[in-house]
């Protein structure tokens, strides 16, 4: 991708993050917690391999959920929600794609927690789940996303 490495910033620009590999999937989450964190009808995320992510400037702080299942990381100055680490998942983390100037990263490929979706909230996601995809679904979803992202 010509956009890599890509730099992203929080709202105020004090915290900068870098992605050096393409996301492995993009998603929208409709759960009430994500809606509150994003102050919106859903949150957008891109799953990025941990080895392809780094904080370039600033020192993100915990905000929102602070364990034990996941940690939200925010800019200490403007408190923008920037990324999430999920306990027990070391392969990837969830990064807020709107921190980057790469529009295709903000288009959700899947949407989760649709059982909690606001009636009027729609996305262009190709796959919808009332909860989260089953673990057995991930290999096919990742392969399909890779094919989709290549075009």
Quick recap of the structure?
The chain has 151 residues and is mainly beta. It has helices at residues 32-38, 138-150; strands at residues 6-9, 16-19, 25-29, 43-49, 53-57, 61-66, 70-74, 81-86, 92-95, 110-112, 127-128. The chain has two helices and eleven strands.
Q: Which labels suit this protein?
A:
glutathione-dependent formaldehyde- activating enzyme (gfa); globular; mainly beta; eight-stranded mixed β-sheet; 151 residues
Structure description:
The protein is mostly beta strands and 151 residues long. It has a single domain (6-150), classed as Alpha-Beta Complex (glutathione-dependent formaldehyde- activating enzyme (gfa)). It has helices at residues 32-38, 138-150; strands at 6-9, 16-19, 25-29, 43-49, 53-57, 61-66, 70-74, 81-86, 92-95, 110-112, 127-128. The strands form two sheets. Strands 6-7-8-9-4-3-10-11 form an eight-stranded mixed sheet.
């Amino acid at each position: 991708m010509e956009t890599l490495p890509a730099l992203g910033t929080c709202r105020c620009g004090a915290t900068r993050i870098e992605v050096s590999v393409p996301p492995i999937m993009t998603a929208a989450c409709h759960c009430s917690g994500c809606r509150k964190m994003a102050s919106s009808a859903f949150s957008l995320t891109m799953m990025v391999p941990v080895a392809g992510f780094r904080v370039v400037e600033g020192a993100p702080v915990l905000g929102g959920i602070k364990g034990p299942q996941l940690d939200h990381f925010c800019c200490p100055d403007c408190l923008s929600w920037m990324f999430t680490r999920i306990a027990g998942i070391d392969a990837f983390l969830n990064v807020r794609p709107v921190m980057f100037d790469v529009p295709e990263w903000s288009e959700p490929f899947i949407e989760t927690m649709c059982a909690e979706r606001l009636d009027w909230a729609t996305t262009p996601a190709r796959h919808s789940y009332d909860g989260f995809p089953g673990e057995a679904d991930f290999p096919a979803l990742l392969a399909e996303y890779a094919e989709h992202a290549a075009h």
